[in-house]
Structures are given as C-alpha cells and as structure tokens.
Amino acid sequence: MIEIKTSKVSDGEHNRGVFATENIKKGELIHQAPVIPYPNDEHQHIEKTTLADYAFEYGKNHTAFLLGYGMLFNHSYTPNASYQIDFDNHVFNFYAFTDIKAGDEILINYNGEEDNNSPLWFNEEEN
C-alpha cells in the first residue's frame, strides 16, 4: 500500500517520503508505527543530533521515535493523512484524511491536527 521514494516536498540530504502504491480511501488505515518512547528530560541529548527533527510528542511527559515508515511522513498544512496515538498498544496509527491516489505522497500535519497552521521549527517564516 505504501513505499518510500524521493520526495519533492522534503529538501536537504534526506529527501525521502512515503507514497501510496495504490488508491487509499478516506479513513483507511495506512500504517501502524510502533514507538520507542523516552522521557522528555532525555530529549536535551537528542536535540544535539539529526534525530531531533524526527521525534514526535508522545503524551505529556514523553517523546518518541516511530519505527516502520512513521518518521518518514513529510509535513503539509493541507495534509492528506492524519495520525492518532494508541497509547495502550504503543503505536501511531496513520489514516487517510482524504482519498489518496496511487503515486501521491502521503503528508501529515506535524502539528498533530489537520487544520493547525501554527509555524513549525523549520518553516516559521512561511506562516
């Protein structure tokens, strides 16, 4: 259903993204990414690395790295996918927010809500 390919959305040396290999209907589960959580007070060490740009908030007191394709979804303020955290099973579930056509890049809003247009650390000048 999904694959990793070169993205035109992402720039820099790590320009990969998640793409649909088939049509995906709105509401359909796209991917379930297991997490590796860690306490927020340990994030100061991660901030010194490239991994800081890939970490997700994981509740009030933790941050997490997502396995599988989880950390490779790129950002858009007009996403075609969303995610929900399943704390009981320690996974992020990625769902189609709109119908997605085969070949389209699957994009999420890094703010966690599809309509949240708050500036992010890498593009504060855009909004």
TrEMBL record:
Domain SET stretches: 1-111
Residue runs in coiled coils: none
Pfam families hit by this protein: SET
Gene Ontology molecular functions: histone H3K37 methyltransferase activity
CDD domains found in the cross-reference section: SET_SpSet7-like
UniProt protein name: SET domain-containing protein
Provenance organism: Salirhabdus euzebyi
Lineage of the species this protein comes from: Bacteria, Bacillati, Bacillota, Bacilli, Bacillales
